[in-house]
Each structure stands twice: as C-alpha cells, then as structure tokens.
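> example.struct
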C-alpha cells in the first residue's frame, strides 16, 4: 500500500441503490474506485469488484432490489479494508447452507454467486430469514 493511501483519512460510508440494471453498473464503478482509494492491487481490486457485482445482482434479482453500502474499516496497525454491506427486503434465503454451496442456483446462473463471493473476501456474514430480507457483510483487508 502506498504511503499516500495510508496517510489519508478513510472516506465516509456511501450507499448506492440497487433497483435497476444501471444501478448494478454504478455499484461496480463505485466499488472499483473504492478499491483504488483503499490501496488494493489489481488482483484484489478484481476480487472485490467481482464479489460486489455478484452480491448486488443477487439483491436485485432475488431480493427485488436493495442497497450496497461501502465502508472503510481501518486498524491502528495500518490494516485498511473495504466492507460491502448489501441489503435487500426480499423473501430471504430459505436454505442458506445450500445457497452457499457451489452449483446451487435458483435461476439460470452457474451457482457460484454467493459462495464465490464468500471465497473472494476475507470476512463474510449473512443474516437472512423468510420474509425478512437478507443482509450480507463482506470485508477484504489490504494486509492479511
């Protein structure tokens, strides 16, 4: 990570709606810019953008829309991160264990979305319930 990236204060959290196909593109661009801001290299930038794209698309397709919030956690040790908080008010995930399993799909996809996003990030939690919507919190750190 560059000295410039380390010396700057973390940006304020920003929330983006996920209601249209265009919103998905906006989220991708915002996440890409945020990964650069945090100081990720190209490989980690790609990992985070890919995870964000999968999670935002899930909120849009399966949750009927929602939001993606970008947060910038940091620790005194210098470790910085980018946290994605993806929320929807959809029906919830009926079987979370199955949804996290490769090959599981409720549509025409390959079934790598939720589990794939989890593998791309350092920390990953899901809160969901029937009729309660879903909240996914995923964080990638600059130093692991």
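> example.seq
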């Amino acid at each position: 990570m560059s000295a410039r990236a380390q010396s700057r204060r973390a940006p304020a959290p920003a929330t983006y709606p996920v209601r249209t196909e265009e919103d998905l593109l906006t989220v991708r661009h915002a996440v890409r810019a945020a990964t650069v801001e945090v100081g990720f290299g190209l490989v980690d930038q790609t990992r985070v953008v890919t995870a964000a794209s999968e999670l935002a698309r899930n909120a849009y397709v399966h949750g009927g829309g929602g939001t993606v919030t970008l947060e910038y956690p940091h620790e005194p040790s210098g470790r910085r991160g980018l946290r994605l908080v993806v929320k929807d008010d959809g029906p919830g995930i009926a079987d979370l264990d199955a949804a996290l399993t490769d090959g599981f799909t409720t549509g025409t996809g390959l079934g790598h979305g939720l589990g794939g996003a989890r593998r791309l990030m350092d920390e990953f939690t899901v809160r969901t319930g029937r009729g309660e919507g879903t909240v996914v919190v995923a964080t990638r750190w600059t130093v692991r």
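> remarks
The chain has a mean pLDDT of 87.
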